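Re-run requested by the PI after the first attempt was lost when the workstation crashed. Everything re-entered from the original request form. Ligand of interest: S-adenosylmethionine.
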Amino acid sequence: MSLLTELQKVKSEEDVKDAYIKALGLKSYTKGLVDIQTEEIWFEAKDAATSPVLMFAQLLFYVRDARKKGEHIPPFLAVIDSEKAAIMETAKALPIMADKAIKWPKSASQVDKQIAAQVAPYIETHFVVYKIESHEKEFISAVKTAIKNGKLVRTPITPDNLRQVFDKWVEMIGREIEGVSETDYALLFFADIMHDGVKAAMADLPARLGYYDDKPTFLLNGKTYELASDRGYRNFWAIYHRPPEQEYRHYLLERRDSLLPLDERSFKGAFYTPLHIVDKAYDLLAETLGKNWQQNYIVWDMCCGVGNLEVKHSNHRNIFMSTLDQADIDVMTASHTCVAATKFQYDYLNDDVVVAQDRTGQDRTGQDRTGQDRTIIHRHRLFPHQQNAAGIATGDC
Ligand SMILES: C[S@@+](CC[C@H](N)C(=O)[O-])C[C@H]1O[C@@H](n2cnc3c(N)ncnc32)[C@H](O)[C@@H]1O
């Protein structure tokens, strides 16, 4: 049973502690004045939702006490309640102990909001909050890694968690960006993740991220977008590591189509072909057209999206790729997809076909190849709601 499900059933602080102990697989622990105590991490628990700063301030009461007595203090501190959890490195909080203005009371239960307000500036930027509803897995992994490796490690962004990370990004960051259309979230998301917080890790992306007065600002199509609040932004980037590993970057960018809002995806038919199906199609083409078909045929994919069908082709100079959204072309340029292919924005339902012929009739050396009669044209099946200006919606070509 997940931690979230367990937490939905808790009736007391004891139940909250037990739910976390089970989910984190804690073995050697004690329960006492410090709610849960292990060698590596101490926990302060509450049954109802409570301010993390107040809980940390109460936990720091015990840290201060242990330090005075020369006792062991753990490298990590965590606070947990029925909705969320937070973790930080103990070392980051130690400067508080030298602050004479803080009048620590006689017991932890007397640590109140006033002391929490004095503690807040020292720790606020050092702890990471995880809402269990959306970040249970990340919290559990952060605690387990902290115990194992002695340091807090952020969750990497990989092909396996791209969709989940994107959905959480929309919730914590995207919705805070003022005046932006939902269909542009994916472009801003890529600008954000392909950045190390100081500089872009990938050039020429359609959207860009910059920091003005230390606040994240996005630039897309000549417009700047700011966040209504950067709280979610800071917390998001405390949980995840960016940029993704070099080996994944191009692959992640090529998955832009999978991040479009569902209604837009079904309108445009933007569902990419799984790579094992692409392999099968290449086998069938070789069987039908001969093993040198990639040399002998020109291919024009009229609905290339971000180039999923072409990445397996080994002769990109023979490929023409067009698609509806310029952003898809920009993504391919940034991710160096099929560099030698000719790529352009083109609406095969509504754009003038003569223009397309002009564009595709010439190869990149300027030679006219319209005389070459061996051309494969790929266009996806039209969806019933898609039709051209004349109201024509036909089947495959
Ligand atoms: C089903 S996806 C295929 C993407 C890629 N070829 C693949 O198989 O993975 C269809 C693509 O066609 C594009 N598209 C839809 N209507 C179009 C139109 N009228 N003209 C050009 N491209 C269009 C969509 O934006 C989408 O990227």
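Saved to the shared folder this time. The two ends are 50 Å apart (CA to CA).
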